[in-house]
Design brief:
4-stranded mixed beta sheet, 487 residues, alpha+beta, sequence-specific DNA binding, DNA-3-methyladenine glycosylase II, TATA-Binding Protein, DNA Methylphosphotriester Repair Domain, Arc Repressor Mutant, subunit A, 5-stranded antiparallel beta sheet, HhH-GPD_domain, zinc
Length: 487
């Protein structure tokens, strides 16, 4: 299916088969019920004459359809095609998920993308049939629907957590779009909420562990994060645990916790989903936290497409051994860039030690630990005496200066190729570092860490010629993870 057009017959076959590979790629709207569903909805498949297919939930809502309470479109994984393309609209969608439109409006969104608001609107209408404002509104509504269904958060808090400016606006928008108020939705979803709570009760923590082992207070709420199966839980969490920064993160093979502005988050695998426990003072950060956790865990990837492509190459035995392998992302793009620079030509354990010192020196202290320093904070910090070389400090300072000045955007607004060029212009950042940043922060599925000694050794041990790199496109980032995780 092309980005702008949906093949009706292909979509209908996917819906009839409840094919999970298409979950998040399109939505099925039923004209007789005025409800739209995920392709995996367990409800009886409607007749072909009564369905319409839409690329995005916002397109279905703009056409007058409301989300199904049974399959819950708010739990759909994202469309992996946008990351693969990495174009303007894909980056705009990432910024909207991150709450960018709520903070700065569509005009601010366009400024970050360095295009006019009119051009941005035209791109969205061409690709999705609706403008960016409609997409942002649908994201707010679906997050609110999840909060009303899965948590006991008061309706007033739900409104602000989802990005609405007032409770009145929240009530009016939900009634206009869905035909019922937030309170009415919560009343009808009570059974779903209770079932979710019972299922998670055995593993829901009474407290969220802080980055230094202290108790950070009661967990305010728990949300479910869904991705496509299979999902290599052990691989993702082990990767994150081996790189956890002291004072900022605590992780092992079954959980990941970190300090975030205003509180903490904890991620734990559950049956069929991942649980996100959030304890933050300002729930308006929730949309951003959810979006960044999804990218951290690579939940929107399409494991079937990746396995199909790589499984027909010299990597076939590795693909078979690690089904559902993911490329762990990052909670913050600048943070990942600093990790990459510090980690040049030293061990993972050595990098953790140095990063822990940077966090303790430059990061803001909270009741739960330290935050990772912002670009401005790192730029102002004294880094001498931490074990970093003079050249490495100069590289970090120049990186921080360019990010703080807006020349480099590592959180989704900048074209990945342009961001890599800007990174390579910094003395001390070479192809390996820039590629590693592209792989984890810029979400480029084809990024390959050029010159990585471990990758070279693994390929030599497996008798894989260098020219096979071209056969792994456009999934070379996943090929790298397969090789890194192979022992």
């Amino acid at each position: 299916m092309s980005p702008t057009e949906l093949d009706f017959d292909a979509c209908y076959r996917a819906v009839s088969a409840r094919d999970a590979r298409f979950d998040g790629r399109f939505y099925t709207a039923v004209t007789t019920t005025r409800i739209y569903c995920r392709p995996i909805c367990p409800a009886r498949t409607p007749g072909a004459r009564n369905v319409r297919f839409y690329r995005h939930a916002a397109s279905a809502e703009a056409a007058g359809f409301r989300p199904c309470k049974r399959c819950r479109p708010e739990l759909s994984p994202g469309d992996p095609g946008w990351d693969l393309r990495g174009d303007l609209i894909g980056r705009a969608l990432r910024l909207i998920d991150d709450g960018g439109a709520d903070e700065d409006g569509v005009a601010g969104l366009a400024r970050r993308l360095h295009i006019t608001e009119r051009h941005l609107h035209r791109l969205f209408v061409t690709e999705l049939g609706v403008g960016p404002l409609a997409v942002a509104r649908t994201r707010r509504l679906l997050l609110a629907k999840q909060l009303l269904t899965e948590t006991a958060l008061p309706v007033t808090d739900v409104a602000f957590a989802a990005g609405f400016g007032s409770v009145r606006q929240f009530n009016a928008t939900m009634r206009e779009t869905y035909g019922f108020t937030p309170s009415e939705l919560r009343a009808t979803a009570g059974g779903l909420t209770s079932a979710a709570r019972r299922e998670d009760a055995a593993t829901t923590p009474t407290t969220v562990a802080g980055a230094e082992g202290a108790q950070a207070g009661p967990a305010v709420l728990r949300l479910r994060l869904h991705g496509r199966e299979p999902y290599d839980v052990e691989g993702v969490f082990t990767f994150l645990a081996s790189r956890a920064i002291p004072g900022l993160e605590v992780a092992d093979a079954t959980s990941y916790s970190r300090v975030v502005p205003g509180g903490t988050i904890t991620l734990t695998p559950q049956r069929g989903h991942l649980a996100l426990d959030v304890s933050v003072a300002d729930t308006r950060q929730l949309a951003r936290i959810v979006a960044r956790c999804r990218r951290l865990l690579d939940l929107d990837a399409d494991p079937a497409a990746i396995a199909d492509a790589l499984g027909r190459t010299s990597l076939a035995p590795l693909v078979a051994a690690r089904p559902g392998l993911r490329v762990p992302g990052t909670f913050d793009g600048f943070e990942l860039a600093v990790r990459a620079v510090v980690g040049q030509q030293i061990s993972v354990a050595g990098a953790r030690t140095l990063l822990g010192r940077i966090v303790a020196t430059a990061g803001a202290r909270t009741a739960d630990g330290h935050l990772f320093p912002t670009a401005a904070e790192l730029l102002a910090a004294e880094l001498d005496g931490l074990g970093l070389t003079t050249r490495r400090i100069a590289t970090l300072k120049e990186l921080a200066s360019r990010v703080d000045g807006g020349l480099i955007d590592l959180d989704g607004a900048q074209d990945p190729a342009e961001a890599v060029r800007e990174l390579l212009a910094i003395p001390g950042i070479g192809p390996w570092t820039a590629s590693y940043i592209a792989l984890r922060a810029l979400r480029d599925p084809d990024a390959w860490p050029t010159g990585d000694l471990v990758l070279d050794r693994r390929m030599a041990a497996l008798d894989i010629p260098k020219e096979h790199l071209e056969r792994w496109r456009p999934w070379r980032a996943y090929a790298a993870l397969h090789l890194w995780s192979h022992s």
